[in-house]
Amino acid sequence: MRLVLVGPPGAGKGTQAAVLSEQLGVPHISTGDLFRANIGNATPLGQKAKSYMDAGELVPDEVTNEMVRDRLSDEDAAKGFLLDGYPRNTGQAGVLGEMLAEHGVELTAVLQFDVPEEELVKRMLARGRSDDTEDVIRRRLAVYRSETEPLLAYYQDKIIKIDAVGSIEEISARALEALGARA
Ligand code: B4P
After folding, report:
1. What is the pLDDT of residue 183?
2. Beta bridge mates, 82
3. Name one GO cellular component term (predicted).
4. Which of 26, 123, 131, 145 could be joined to 10 by an S-S link, Cβ 3.0–4.6 Å?
5. Ligand 1 binding pocket includes 127 (Cβ within 6 Å)
6. Domains in the chain, start-ordered, CATH in brackets?
């Protein structure tokens, strides 16, 4: 399985990716987690990413694409993967398409997590990560609508829409069922 998870900030992509990666036996690759690990280790990549993340903006594509290219060339990604938070715009999607073509593979599906905006804001404020302040959340939602939502049309043949309101178990059961139905 080669999956992409798309959804607004706070939709639970990271939460569901952790469950699904375990169930499907493929690595969970989260660009947000990779950036946060680099920030934690004070690497040059982390230093580049931090100001963008703190402002709720996307990290520049060339930085993000190279990081993903490196991660996808690791051995464990050969059996499949679950990409969480990447691609986040059509430019990144084009580069991902090229990377997959180099390996002679295609995406299996794109899971779209659907959650109303009030619920997203509530979840993020409760989480309280450093980029979860009200102003930064509003900016991230605006960036999602302008930059990331066009992916839904870009991937229209691959999209599986999941109602992502409910318990974590209910949502992962919906996702697994939808994937089974497609396999
Ligand atoms: P991410 O790390 O991807 O974070 P996110 O979109 O805010 O959260 P996610 O949807 O994963 O929600 P989660 O499971 O945590 O991005 C952070 C930043 O990194 C971006 O703003 C950007 O700057 C940068 N970045 C990342 N990828 C990039 C890219 N490709 N290009 C450029 N920049 C990039 O869940 C949220 C909360 O809800 C949690 O507290 C969770 O416990 C809770 N929750 C989850 N499921 C729930 C449920 N069913 N019910 C109630 N609460 C739930």
Report:
1. 53
2. 3, 28
3. cytoplasm
4. 123
5. yes
6. 2-182 (3.40.50.300)
